[in-house]
Structure formats: structure tokens, C-alpha cells
Amino acid sequence: MTASAPSVPPRVAVLLAACNGERWLDEQVQSIQAQQRVAVHLHISVDESLDNTWGWCEAYAAAHANVTLLPSGRSGSAAGNFFRLLRDVSLGELDHVAFADQDDIWLPGKLLRAIEQLSAHRASAYSSNVLAFWADGRRQLLDKAQPQVHWDHHFEAAGPGCSYVFAPAFAQALQGFVRQHRHALQNVALHDWLAYAYARQNGWVWFIDQQPGLLYRQHGNNEFGANTSWRSMFHRLKRIRQGWWFEQVSLIARLVGVDAAAPVTGAAVDRRQLARMLVNARQCRRRPRDQLLFAALCAVAWITGGAK
Fold this sequence. Notes:
Blueprint: E1 11-18, H1 22-33, E2 39-46, H2 53-63, E3 67-69, H3 78-88, E4 96-100, E5 105-106, H4 110-120, E6 125-128, E7 130-133, E8 139-142, E9 165-166, H5 168-180, H6 191-201, E10 206-209, E11 214-217, H7 230-241, H8 244-256, H9 271-279, H10 288-303
Parallel strand pairs: 1-2, 1-4, 2-3, 6-10, 7-11
Antiparallel strand pairs: 4-9, 5-11, 6-9, 7-8
Helix pairs in contact: 6-8, 9-10
């Protein structure tokens, strides 16, 4: 009787964007290397840093055959760094692609569960809830797994980008889109929102998992962290009232396209679009609390004469 051949573990390209992350990188990278029953190839892009992030990554890549460090460059933001990774890393002959931040801790079965859930739900893209954690030992579940609604992708991401895992066909389609729109994407602040919007608008199935796959580190250097305090909520509301969020809504809609019935057109958000967003608030955000806040924001902007 002939023994069956051992199954080949899925090959996963992990795209890690780093900047001033020397103090956290070792713990994050070790958790990526410890992923169960997958073959990881880690690709790191280091943005201009004030600490020894580049030196740490250079030494680590030299010592590990499954780690590739992209040539030094300047992206200017976390989103720009991820777009650079998507443009420059060869995604052929890979089974899946995942995003990684520099400062989290992945649970050992994170990638395997994502791959299994992609197959089970016949999905092309995956994200999950995460466990936010602080240096003082606090932990809090960040629940992003509410049912998707018709136009949520025009107004929010599918959760933190560090939880994203893509099937190969979608990863290559997204790569082509990023390469095509290289210059326009320089103004996109959130790569995870853009990826989700592109997927949903083009008919790719996206599954959001209730089970968290990683510990999502919170600290003073988070570019966009957990929105769990009054201070962080006030900061975000301030940016929204200054027009930043509405500008991103319009920009992403222009890039990925919109259907004729969508409340956002891709043009600058005006009072007519605000009224349509207000009426359709339940189809613009997933979480009921966010639907209420979204409606209130649109109402205030409409009363005061526009989105800025």
C-alpha cells in the first residue's frame, strides 16, 4: 500500500509596511514566522525612519531565506507604503496574500483560519475582528463583523488592514488596479478602505470573520488605532468636520466607481449627496451605532451648508 503524499502547505506572501517600528518588529515578525501549517514569505518595505528600523530589517532579511527587504524608499504614509508593496512584490505562484502592520502580534492560527474561511465562504478577500491591547494589560475586542450593507464600502473599511488576507485572483486584480492608479493613490489615506471598496464595487466576495486573529497593539504612534476613547473619537470627529473624511469618500468613489443608485457620486460631497446619505444611512455603515452617528454627521453638514 502506497502512502499518500504529504499535503503542500499554502504559500502566503505577507506584505509588511514598517516605519519607526524597531521596538515592536521582533515580536511581530516572530508571530508571523510562527504561523501554523502555512509557508510564509515575508516582504518588508521600510519607509524613512528615525530609529534603526532599516538596520533591523536588513539584518533579519539577511539571516532568513523567506524574508525579502525591498530597496529603501520614501512613501510618506502607511497607505503609501502598502501601495508600494502591492506594486512591487511579485504575486505570481502564491496561494494567498496578507497585509501586516509592524507592531501587532498574530495568533498562531491566523493565516490558516483565514484560508479555511475563504474556501468555506467561497470568498476572495477576508478580514476579521481584532483584540486591541495596551501596555497596561487592557484588552478590548474590536467588533467589525456586522453584516455588510449595500454601500458600506464607500464609507468604511472591512476592519483593520492587518487582518486582511486575499485569494490570488483578487490579489493580482488589486495589484493591477494599484499599478494603474499609482499617482491618484498618493492622496488615499487608508489602504484598507481602498482595498475593501475596490473589492465590493467590482463584485468580489468579502468575508468578515467574528473570530479575532491577532492582538492589535495600541500606542502613541498609531497612525489610525482603535477608536475606543472619547479623546480618539473627538480627534476623528474633528478631522471629519475639517473635510478630510468627505474628501476621502469622494476620492475613493472616483477611483473604484459607483453604481447609479449610490448616494455618493465621486464628485465633491455637496448638500444633495449629504441628503441622500442621510436618508440611506442604514445602507452606508454596518454597525447600528455608526449608522446613527453617520446620519447625525450628514444632518449637521447639510444644515451648515456642505461637507466642509
